[in-house]
From TrEMBL:
Keyword Transmembrane helix assigned: yes
Coiled coil: none
Protein name listed in UniProt: MFS transporter
Spans through the membrane: 12-37, 43-65, 77-95, 167-188, 209-234, 246-264, 276-295, 301-320, 332-355, 361-381
Lineage, broadest ranks: Bacteria, Bacillati, Actinomycetota, Actinomycetes, Kitasatosporales
Location in or out of the cell: Cell membrane
Keywords: Membrane, Transmembrane, Transmembrane helix
Highest taxon of the lineage: Bacteria
Residue ranges annotated for the Major facilitator superfamily (MFS) profile domain, each copy included: 11-391
Amino acid sequence: MSYVSLLRGPHVTRLLVGTLVGRLPSAMAAVAIPLTLRRAGASYAFVGLAVGAFAIAAAVAGPLLGRLVDRVGQPRVLVPAAVLAGCGFLVIAAAPGHQATVLLGAVLAGAATPPLEPCLRALWPDVVEAGKLESAYALDSASQELVFVGGPLVVAGCVAVGSPVEALWAGALLGLAGVAVVATAPPTRAWRAPARVADWLGPLRSRGLVVLLISLTGVGVAIGTLNVVVVSYAEGHRLPGGAPGLLALNALGALVGALLYGAVRRWPIPPPLRALLLATGLTVGYALLCLLPAPPLMACLMLLTGLFLAPVLTVSFVLVGELAPAGTITEAFAWLVTLMTAGTALGSAAVGGVLEWAGPNWAAACGALGLTVGVLVLMVGQAQLVTDRGRDMGERTTSAV
């Protein structure tokens, strides 16, 4: 189907653009916080501590904010969160030389990160027609690449005309602007989660969802591994753009993969099996990366891995929507973000030591290993991923054929 017709649908472009703008501060923080602290004379050890505090706070608080959204609605959580997160960035900007203050600001900015990703994915079923839902998820997945490209570019522009402190101010303002666009949209104000069963586990009482989330942690490990391996590779090979150039190719592959996936009008393969096959393709791509070939082939592998990554995430969004118990959809999507983030952190941490002790080829193998574990989890848990809704859809497709 045409992405143009999808974007012309009521509220689609507004929600997508607002979410992208509101998520820029998270991508900016990874660059703006280190630059600001280094300008103030902070050590690399403290820079790592501050960035880690931001990431951990965001990962821990994400599901809690998602659960709150499911209970009280989206605007009542998004707006206060954006204000608090902006205050966190401004605290860092005001006292970059005071370590305790910086850590307080980093934790506040991370913990209050507005849950725009899970909120948007919870809205899609109410905003687009059922036949266009998977294409909306694909467009959502593709747009993530714009966040990770746009965030650092905004920081670079702020540094060029001022200093990294201005980037923190810009992050606070962009977060508020994006949330304002999303929170005032009619679908956001009207959205209410269905009544939920009182259970402290929330969406995690769904065994299928737990299977899916564990497998996606392996995808996060692969992403974290890649971020470090390409830096090592670029140091040993002459190539245009260095490590950022390779990651840009990976992002380009993901963008193309998401758009191609969403262009398929009807998939003959049910989502659980589709997730397994796509994850297997991604694993093969990362296994080939272990060879660390010459730059032309390495560029092709970066495109290939990106090509599979976005479709894996897109079909995962579909499965989360099917597997999440009633009244827990936002929290379920927040858990997806949290476990992907945790996997990325684990991969980045583990690959550094392997790179030092065993060399780049074995370091690259960490990503393939994480994905292999994820594929095995999907394979063993296939039966848990088939919901009554998914089974009915499969039967209708079979009868139509």
